[in-house]
Amino acid sequence: MTMFWIVRHGQTDWNLLGRWQGQSPDAPGLNATGLTQALALRDALKDVKFAAIYSSDLFRSLQTAQPIAETLGLTITLEPRLREINLGAWEGMLADDIQALYPRELEERRRNPFHTRAPDGESPRDVAERVLPAVDEIAGRHPYDDVLLVSHGLSLAILLCHARGIPLEQVYDHIPENAKPQRLEWV
């Protein structure tokens, strides 16, 4: 059994504004609060004997993982399959604007959350199909170890639901807070 410590990246300005980030190349890195959160996370986890640190390759996750890796003398392994959901046409948009321009699509997402995708984007099911095999592979490399995963809200919510036996249709109800570590036993 691998013990995963999962962490959503620190806060960004887009988090504060209600702007949907997804995989947007325009998404900002951590803001001042996010950088402070990353340092606090480093201090909180400094005594954990991690065998490895894996991070999404998106900058906000890497920024969150770096202080921990530096303190522990570990290298961060970038894993693109840990990326946030691709929100397609909605990336970079404010929540209110998405509601105004895509009301039917958002209503479908409310009715069928696990299978509905943003225009030109992914569904949570698509994310699960890349995130779960990635985490299984990581667990296979580190049986019986503690491993840090730094990723994103929806990707981590899928892991939480899967590990705790929560139906994946409830994934949007389990998005973790920024920079708050949680432990998951992965068997």
Describe it for me?
This protein is α/β, with parallel strands linked by helices. Helix content is 42%, strand content 14%. It is built from seven helices and five strands, in the order βααβαβαααβαβ. A five-stranded mixed beta sheet has the order 3-2-4-1-5, with helices on both faces. Strand 2, helix 3 and strand 3 form a beta-alpha-beta unit. Helix 2 packs parallel to helix 3 and helix 6 (124-141) packs across helix 7. The longest helix has 18 residues, at 124-141. It is globular and about 50 Å long. The chain starts with a strand and ends with a strand.
Beta-strand content: 5-15%
Please identify the structural class as seen in this structure.
Answer: alpha/beta
Largest sheet: 5 strands, mixed
Please state the oligomeric state of the protein chains shown: single chain
Overall, the morphology is: globular
| Helix run count | 7
| Secondary-structure element series | EHHEHEHHHEHE
Uncertain regions spanning at least 5 consecutive residues = none
Number of strands: 5
Mean pLDDT, rounded to whole units? 97
Question: What is the strand arrangement across the widest sheet?
Answer: 3-2-4-1-5
Gyration radius from CA atoms, angstroms: 16 Å
Proportion of residues in helical segments: 40-55%
From the N-terminal CA to the C-terminal CA, the straight-line distance is 5 Å
